[in-house]
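Appendix B. Chain record.
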Amino acid sequence: MKIAIVTDAWHPQTNGVVTTLSKTVEGLRKKGHTVEIIHPGLFRTVPCPTYPDIRLALFPFRNVARLLDAYAPNAIHLPTEGPLGFTGRHYCEKRKIPFTTTFTTKWPDYIQVRFGISVHLTYKLIRWFHRPATRTMVATPSLKRDLEEKGLKNLVFWGRGVDSDLFKPRSKDAIDAFRPIGMYMGRVAVEKNIEAFLNVKAPGTKVVIGDGPAMQSLREKYPAVRFLGKKTGEDLAIHLAAADVFVFPSLTDTFGIVMIEAMACGLPIAAYPVAGPNDVVIHGETGWLDKDLNIAFEKALEMSPERCRQHALQFSWEKSIDQFEANLAPIPTAPHP
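Structure tokens predicted for this chain:
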């Protein structure tokens, strides 16, 4: 099958969406499919407001149409509600061909945090974007319920996985610091609620891995915290495994692949009892969920690293890729201009 993925999230961005797409594309190609990625790097771009490291395609419709016409895919997937996602939607609607989408990011909640715009308004746009899709893929049962309450239809599951050969228990020597070490890994931005972690009253050391628009202000405000910056691959896995507790303070994430990666390293999770952690963490076994992050941190230290690893191994990229493949909407005939 020739599959086209039209996405605003792709390398060199570092986030859960890019990780998921990269693993999915790799797996689909191993299964014999041909996959074409239409991404911002193929177009003139402008920086995303408040996220200058994220580039948005500028006036992409003509080139997107040309690329899709030339490729003639058997299925089209739109994983993001950005300029390329909207362009892909317009292309499919204009030609009356089926397509699938993914709800990966709670942009309405992010936009409300950053700009004060009501989620009531932005979810209207989200419903409009996904309405014509044959299927909209979501990662967890709680997210499915939440979106159904908000009026989204045709929701199906698309799970996530972990590279258990990369993310595994290792020596704790990579970080020489007073323990216990609590770690956050991910984008350093206001909507991730990182300050809730940085304000936890707990002994030991707090470590942040990642980069983002809030990095400089948080460095200045929390000089005792170790900000290690962006890390990837083996270096990332080594430093992640050196922590004692992984703290996931976000209230708005739809999943949180980093939690699975942390558990695969044997780290228990401290988080709020919200969508994402509720679906990924076994409360009282692989982490602790509490409205008070201080309590969650303290109780998480009592969890078994072996149980965390065991639970993480249930999340398989192979299963995830099979789900994605089954969810696609085949195009009866190749699209024509």
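Further analysis of this model is presented in Appendix C.
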